[in-house]
Amino acid sequence: MNRTFLVALSFCAAISIAQPVAAQGAAPQSKLSVPMEALPRYGSLVSAWYKKPVYDTNEKKVGVITDMLFSGGEVNAIMLDVGGFLGIGAKHVAIPANDITVTEKNNKTWLTINTTKDIVKKATGYKYDAKEHAWKQM
Q: Which of 28, 63, 124, 135 could be bridged to 80 by S-S, CB 3.0 to 4.6 A?
């Protein structure tokens, strides 16, 4: 799933910065894509969130981020792995991306959400369908 995630992330990043290119055969209007000289402005890195725990407002672990769903170059939903023991019996739930925030306290930073583990455990579960490369409702 890591490879699929990285491919999807790369694809979304490319789409969000890509410029329209003329059809082949119209070489004078084509634009060659070159590496960026400077990074565009951004708010956070996917690597700072992926496989990271998410805590409630009482600093109790709610789950772990296992995937991010992109659309139009923006993260729309976060897939959280909740429950289970050592990955067995865990359930994946979708959380709106805007509901997760970065919290700082005592020189530490972590991800938080204003909910409880019990509420998240009762949410609709999803399973990743590797054949279709999509999350399906359980």
A: 63
